[in-house]
């Protein structure tokens, strides 16, 4: 066992990359749930985005087009959920689970011709002399654009929900859709926009997984990332800042356990592989231990069906 081989600077930089897919998906689901909709299809949208982005990037040679295609694919799949739940009034939990199964099956079908194919490389953002700063340069300023977009989205979503009229309307729809409807707001339209945003973010997270995090296509490669994103949103009490902490915690433990395996730690590989999920859930449960405070942050209409005639 050689723990000296683990470089803390590289470890910290790697956790940002490992956390980005989860962070993007969780931020999208945060917006969806703030509108009063519970979409359990995050895993399906992520894996669909992963294959849409991978296939597009391989065929066009452009990772940027791949990311855009992944967002479109995730949003399109989320619209299936939106139509079924907002117009046909299907059960949100059952529909979300079906969406995950559909996404996993669809991606396996579409990805058959891409197994073993290497995608075009995603370039790091050139930040000039910032990247040369000792320690901090390697940790903070040596990543690709998507990492910084995910961090900007944390601040942006927090600011929009807290300070803008659009955020107030979104939260009003999630808290009391009947009152929002009585004030003249288009509840279904607002929720569909939130669902599409959530799908696009899940798709982007999936594409980051297949193009950057693990630059290859493997069937089922999300490996439960969508479920972790869902858990992070709930246990983070629907707060963007806590979502960031939860995602980075998961990413950190993932990278650490990989390094521990490489160092030959005398712990069963299966236990190390399960540790990110166990630690993330445990810590986030502790963070949300105050049930009363967590309940106050939950959208009051989460998962409830809106009837326009009510």
UniProtKB/TrEMBL annotation:
Give yes or no: UniProt keyword Transferase: no
According to the record, the segments passing through the membrane are 6-25, 37-58, 64-84, 96-115, 135-161, 192-211, 217-236, 243-260, 266-287
Q: Which PANTHER family match?
A: ABC TRANSPORTER PERMEASE PROTEIN, SUGAR ABC TRANSPORTER INTEGRAL MEMBRANE PROTEIN-RELATED
Q: What's the source species for this entry?
A: Rhodovulum adriaticum (Rhodopseudomonas adriatica)
Tell me which UniProt keywords the record has, alphabetically.
Answer: Cell membrane, Membrane, Transmembrane, Transmembrane helix
Q: Spell out the subcellular localization from the entry.
A: Cell membrane
Task: One Pfam family, please name it.
Answer: BPD_transp_2
Name the UniProt record assigns to this protein = Nucleoside ABC transporter membrane protein
């Amino acid at each position: 066992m050689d723990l000296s081989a683990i470089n803390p600077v590289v470890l910290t930089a790697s956790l940002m990359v490992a956390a980005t897919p989860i962070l993007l998906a969780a931020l999208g689901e945060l917006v969806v749930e703030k509108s009063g909709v519970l979409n359990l299809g995050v895993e399906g949208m992520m894996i669909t985005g992963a294959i849409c982005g991978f296939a597009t990037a391989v065929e066009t040679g452009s990772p940027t087009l791949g990311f855009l295609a992944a967002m479109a694919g995730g949003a399109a799949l989320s619209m299936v959920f939106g139509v079924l739940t907002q117009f046909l009034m299907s059960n949100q939990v059952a529909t979300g689970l079906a969406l995950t199964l559909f996404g996993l099956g669809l991606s396996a079908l579409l990805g058959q011709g891409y197994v073993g194919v290497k995608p075009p490389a995603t370039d790091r953002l050139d930040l000039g002399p910032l990247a040369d700063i000792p320690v901090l340069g390697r940790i903070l300023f040596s990543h690709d654009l998507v990492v910084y977009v995910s961090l900007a989205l944390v601040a942006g979503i927090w600011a929009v929900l807290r300070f803008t009229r659009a955020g107030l309307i979104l939260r009003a729809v999630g808290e009391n859709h009947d009152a929002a409807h009585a004030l003249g707001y288009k509840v279904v339209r607002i929720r569909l926009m939130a669902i599409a945003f959530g799908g696009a973010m899940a798709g982007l997270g999936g594409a980051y997984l297949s193009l950057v995090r693990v630059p290859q296509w493997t069937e089922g490669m999300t490996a439960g990332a969508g479920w972790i994103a869902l858990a992070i949103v709930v246990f983070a009490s629907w707060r963007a800042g806590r979502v960031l902490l939860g995602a980075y915690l998961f990413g950190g433990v993932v990278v650490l356990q990989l390094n521990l395996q490489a160092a030959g730690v005398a712990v069963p590989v299966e236990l190390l592989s399960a540790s990110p999920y166990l630690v993330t859930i445990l810590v986030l449960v502790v963070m949300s231990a105050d049930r009363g405070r967590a309940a106050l942050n939950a959208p009051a209409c989460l998962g409830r069906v809106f009837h326009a005639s009510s």
